[in-house]
Design goal:
Shape: globular
CATH architecture: 3-Layer(aba) Sandwich
Radius of gyration: 15 Å
CATH topology: Rossmann fold
Largest sheet: 7 strands, mixed
Strand content: 25-35%
Number of strands: 12
CATH superfamily: Class I glutamine amidotransferase (GATase) domain
Strand order of the largest sheet: 2-1-3-4-12-11-10
Order of helices and strands: EHEHEHHEHEEEEEEEEH
Bound molecules: glutamine
Distance between the termini: 15 Å
């Protein structure tokens, strides 16, 4: 498995995957992408990752692999990169797409740029998942084939969609990679194993 290593919290994802007993490696070049069977798109800054993906000639290869069905998981900026449509993009910002949804960047507003909440997460058993939001996006609307896995429960953003799955693609507005709870990564690893089995 690979973690797109252009910018963002790459190390945290590599560590979470290692805890799931998965050999994960950073992906910075097309040759490295060709060697992995699944890709994590980290949290960070989607505009920067987009620019660097183009500069490193990774954009087209990533698009091709997603079209071919490679499993991918994006957290926060990674969710933005997996969205077919974004609101509040910077001019010229592109995504890889793959999930038929509209995502609003920096959606939670200035007062609550960062916050945490425990959320029930479909497909993750046991305790709710601690969701850490950092200048996070939310999902404004999804096509019928997109499965909603988690929504904000309380406060002004209650009801907003913050975790989704479409086929082999998984995305969360929040960052499980920084909480020490590896259940969302495990879910992704199970998805990948299901595809490869
Ligand atoms: N606001 C960032 C963006 O637009 C995402 C923030 C994050 O990944 N923590 O890419």
């Amino acid at each position: 498995m690979g973690v797109l290593a252009l910018q963002g919290d790459v190390r945290e994802h590599l560590a979470a995957l290692a805890e799931c007993d998965v050999v994960a490696r950073p992906v910075r070049r097309p040759t490295e992408l060709a060697e992995v069977d699944a890709l994590v798109l980290p949290g960070g800054e989607s505009t920067t990752i987009d620019k660097l993906a183009r500069a490193f000639d990774l954009r087209e290869p990533v698009l091709d692999r997603i079209k071919q069905g490679m499993p991918a998981y994006g957290s926060c900026a990674g969710m933005i990169l997996l969205a077919d449509r974004i609101v509040d993009a910077v001019p010229g910002q592109q995504t890889f797409g793959g999930i038929d949804m509209t995502v609003r960047r920096n959606a939670f507003g200035r007062q609550v740029e960062s916050f945490e909440e425990d959320l029930p997460f479909a497909g993750v058993d046991g305790e709710p998942v601690r969701a850490v939001f950092i200048r996070a996006p939310w999902v404004e609307e999804v096509a019928p084939q997109v499965e909603v896995l988690a929504k904000v429960e309380a406060g002004p953003a209650a009801g907003r969609i913050v975790a989704v799955r479409q086929g082999n693609l998984l995305a969360t507005s929040f960052h499980p990679e920084i909480t020490g709870d590896i259940r969302v990564h495990r879910l992704f690893v199970e998805m990948v194993r299901g595809v490869l089995a």
